[in-house]
Design goal:
The complex is a heterodimer of chains A (166) and B (317). Chain A is built from 5 helices and no strands. With 166 residues, chain A is mainly α. Chain A is elongated and about 80 Å long. Chain A starts with a helix and ends in an 11-residue tail after the last helix. Chain B has one domain: ATP12-like fold (Orthogonal Bundle). Chain B has 14 helices and 6 strands. In chain B, strand 5, helix 7 and strand 6 form a beta-alpha-beta unit. In chain B, helix 4 packs across helix 10 and helix 4 crosses helix 14. The longest helix of chain B has 21 residues. The chains are: A mainly alpha (166), B alpha+beta (317). At the A-B interface, helix 1, helix 3 and helix 4 of A face helix 3 and helix 14 of B. Chain B: Keywords: Chaperone, Mitochondrion, Transit peptide. Chain B: Belongs to the ATP12 family. Chain B: It is found in: Mitochondrion. Chain B: It comes from Lachancea mirantina.
């Protein structure tokens, strides 16, 4: 009886964890893509430079397939959708979590532990919802400095010139 | 508006003013003096940027230590962020908090467990009699000062303030009497052994007392103080967090009893119940008048996440 209860509360906890971390994982995946794109773009620029320095026409042609490949990689990365990643549907540390919760126990401590698992699930759930609400009601928090400057200028009917970096 | 109402709006307003997300406050402690000790949590709160790749849990001497890229994570007072081996789930969720942060700016409210555990660790560290008095000031006074501050919450405890009978056709008052009264009796019984005479808590009844403050008798205060002195520094920090969240000394006591001792049947409550008890009046108000956006919905989650975080930190088998 208690075994079933602890199992169901544990399952509910893992479900909550997966739902709550989808957001973080997505943000982290987006950052990762951005970093990769920046790296590849740098690589591409270097290739173009090397190509321009090369005097031999034949050797210059050899750069083309490499350039094409890098451009294709960048395209693929830019088109990939982090929201559709498979790992968004799993909790990474599930083994460590199970180990930490599956210590030997007596029936009394087991009842207490079931409550504990429910507390954790409730904490994760409420923390997740709280952060979502804060983000929704404070859109300025996630804005970049450039975006903030642009919007502040727009408030008084001005536009930030594009050439001036903020 | 009744006195009870005034009180709540007061807290609401104060909370609205205090709530300033995204500012650079010390993450571990809310009200401590800002300091420049070189610790990870300070670095994070000053730069608000993620600077690590891997979060790991390291095990030694029966302690579970959280590390960022192999370097130990430290609390605002420069103590290592570690928990006892018996609190493995807590360590797991501390780690999760740090590995979940994305590269974007980090806001102080995204580390509630770290915040409460840091406070627990720092309070334990400054409880050492040979501790540097400067650190004691940084954490907001010694144990006695903290206890005295918390004791004031027993005078105007949320669970000791009763609404007038004519509000909400008496529904709120009925709910308060049904849910608060058994707990008040239970707490009186629990505190009585600490002093000679049986403890009786003074209740603030809006119908009888109208607009006036409330104060407990000297003997009640003595019993409550004696109870506080039995708490370990760790549990005192958890107790403090709960009291500040729920504005109720009794709720703090209920949480500690349920998570670290085996409570008597009268005092057995779930954490959801604790959150409900602390916000009972708001529940009736929003039922009648509707929720105010960016206030009731946010506060509802805030109370619950803090109460549950405290419960996770306090949990002992």
């Amino acid at each position: 009886m208690q075994r079933n209860e602890i199992l169901s509360s544990y399952k509910a906890l893992v479900k909550t964890l997966v739902r709550a971390q989808r957001r973080y994982k997505k943000a982290q995946a987006e950052d990762e893509i951005k970093r990769q794109v920046a790296l590849l773009t740098y690589k591409k620029i270097n290739l173009v430079r090397q190509q321009a320095l090369e005097k031999d026409a034949q050797k210059r042609l050899e750069f083309l397939p490499m350039l094409n490949e890098v451009t294709k990689d960048i395209d693929v990365l830019k088109r990939s959708d982090p929201a559709r990643l498979r790992r968004l549907h799993f909790y990474d540390d599930v083994r460590a979590l199970r180990q930490s919760l599956a210590q030997p126990s007596t029936p009394e401590t087991l009842a207490k532990r079931i409550d504990h698992i429910r507390d954790i699930a409730s904490f994760v759930q409420n923390q997740h919802e709280y952060e979502e609400l804060i983000d929704r009601y404070n859109p300025g928090l996630k804005m970049s400095q450039a975006e903030k400057v642009k919007r502040t200028a727009a408030k008084v009917g001005l536009e930030v010139p594009e050439s001036i970096p903020v | 508006m009744s006195f009870n109402n005034c009180l709540k709006t007061g807290t609401l307003l104060r909370r609205a003013i205090v709530r300033n997300h995204g500012t650079s406050t010390s993450i571990g402690i809310d009200s401590t003096v800002e300091n420049n000790l070189k610790t990870e949590s300070n670095r994070l709160s000053k730069t608000l940027n993620r600077f690590w790749e891997k979060v790991t849990i390291e095990q030694n001497d029966g302690q579970l230590k959280i590390s960022l890229d192999g370097k130990p994570l430290k609390t605002p007072l420069s103590n290592e962020l570690s928990v006892s081996q018996t609190q493995a789930p807590l360590a797991h969720f501390l780690k999760r908090e740090w590995s979940n942060l994305s590269d974007l700016t980090i806001r102080p409210h995204s580390l509630p467990l770290t915040s409460i555990v840091s406070r627990c660790i720092d309070l334990t560290a400054v409880s050492d009699p040979h501790c540097d008095p400067e650190l004691v000031t940084k954490i907001g006074g010694n144990r006695n000062t903290i206890c005295q501050g918390l004791l004031r919450y027993l005078d105007t405890d949320t669970l000791l303030c009763f609404s007038p009978k004519d509000e909400f056709e008496g529904a709120l008052r009925r709910a308060q009497e049904k849910e608060y009264m058994p707990l008040i009796r239970g707490v009186e019984q629990f505190l009585s052994p600490y002093v000679k005479n049986p403890v009786s808590l003074k209740i603030l009844d809006a119908d009888l007392h109208g607009l006036r403050g409330n104060a407990q008798t000297q003997e009640t205060k003595e019993a409550a103080m004696k109870f506080l002195s039995t708490l370990s520094p760790w549990n005192l920090a958890v107790f403090e967090k709960t009291v500040l969240t729920t504005k109720s000394f009794i709720c703090g006591l209920l949480l500690i009893l349920n998570k670290t001792y085996i409570p008597s049947a009268a005092l057995k409550v779930s954490m959801e119940q604790v959150a409900r008890l602390a916000t009972l009046e708001t529940i009736y108000q929003t039922e009648r008048w509707g929720e105010v956006e960016d206030t009731h919905d946010v506060d509802k989650r805030d109370v619950r996440r803090n109460v549950n975080a405290a419960a996770i930190a306090a949990y002992q088998e």
